[in-house]
């Protein structure tokens, strides 16, 4: 029998994937929670009195996030209030089931819940979008709409910030994907623990340095209720390759995940490469680096029966839409 390496004298029941330490359950819980607390404090993620929206999908990450935030808030007297914010993409057999888990979290953690649906915000469900565009670019639509839906939900609820369940593996995958695409300019933003665009409510990632395997272990040993089925429209092949590569690296060298995140953090934006300035969309008023935000561009394509219009370079697409709008108003005037 291996004794817990934290020195409590109990038998170890697990080996921490992040450090290789053999720990008993209680010492693992303490180490896991303390690391998240340290991330919150060193990143100054919250202020006393903040109302925090926890982006909740019913999956393991957001369930553990809500549970640990509630626990740390009590243990360290952060003085925070919480609300769960969920987005219903309209995916039959996936989101409808996972939202039931979110409702269970709402009752168990005693946090109010707000659900916003793509159907009410955009007039389209993901089921309907996939019917129109097929299974190739569906995650582009879904990701763009979800980002904006969270902004809209946060504004509606009047929260001070949105906490998301992105974990260390998610971040390392995103760093790899940006490097593989040659998109070095995005590294700073994708590794930032707080992202705050002007006029938008900031978002933070308290699980930024928490390994996915440890989140699963924590949820398992704490017997938390979460939903673990994958989305029925999950073909995101590029991320899938980055994930498989990362898992292979992690097998040989568990610190690879943290090393990749630290590389992404320290790689500075190359001279002459500028991140687009963030402003607001001239149509919907939400955050955008272009005249029209990506959500409005994609929506325009869908509503015109030209869903591929929004896939590709945003500036070219914006020009095409603006030109086509001018054309339409000219014809209307002539008529
Ligand atoms: Fe949306 Fe794609 Fe995620 Fe499914 S896998 S929820 S379609 S982003």
From TrEMBL:
Principal subcellular localisation of the protein: cytoplasm
Record: residues binding ATP: 55-57, 61, 87, 165, 170
GO terms classed as biological process: protein urmylation; tRNA wobble position uridine thiolation
UniProt keyword terms in alphabetical order: ATP-binding, Cytoplasm, Nucleotide-binding, RNA-binding, Transferase, tRNA processing, tRNA-binding
InterPro entries: CTU1-like_ATP-bd, CTU1_C, Ncs6/Tuc1/Ctu1, Rossmann-like_a/b/a_fold, TilS/TtcA_N, tRNA_thiolation_TtcA_Ctu1, UPF0021_CS
Enzyme class, UniProt record, top EC level: transferase
PROSITE patterns from the UniProt entry: UPF0021
GO molecular function: ATP binding; nucleotidyltransferase activity; tRNA binding
EC number: 2.7.7.-
Metabolic or biological pathway: tRNA modification; 5-methoxycarbonylmethyl-2-thiouridine-tRNA biosynthesis
One GO CC annotation: cytosolic tRNA wobble base thiouridylase complex
Domain tRNA(Ile)-lysidine/2-thiocytidine synthase N-terminal: 52-228
Highest taxon of the lineage: Eukaryota
Location in or out of the cell: Cytoplasm
Domain Cytoplasmic tRNA 2-thiolation protein 1 C-terminal, residue spans: 279-309
Family membership noted in the UniProt record: Belongs to the TtcA family. CTU1/NCS6/ATPBD3 subfamily.
Matches recorded under PANTHER family: ATPASES OF THE PP SUPERFAMILY-RELATED, CYTOPLASMIC TRNA 2-THIOLATION PROTEIN 1
Physiological role: Plays a central role in 2-thiolation of mcm(5)S(2)U at tRNA wobble positions of tRNA(Lys), tRNA(Glu) and tRNA(Gln). Directly binds tRNAs and probably acts by catalyzing adenylation of tRNAs, an intermediate required for 2-thiolation. It is unclear whether it acts as a sulfurtransferase that transfers sulfur from thiocarboxylated URM1 onto the uridine of tRNAs at wobble position.
Protein name: Cytoplasmic tRNA 2-thiolation protein 1
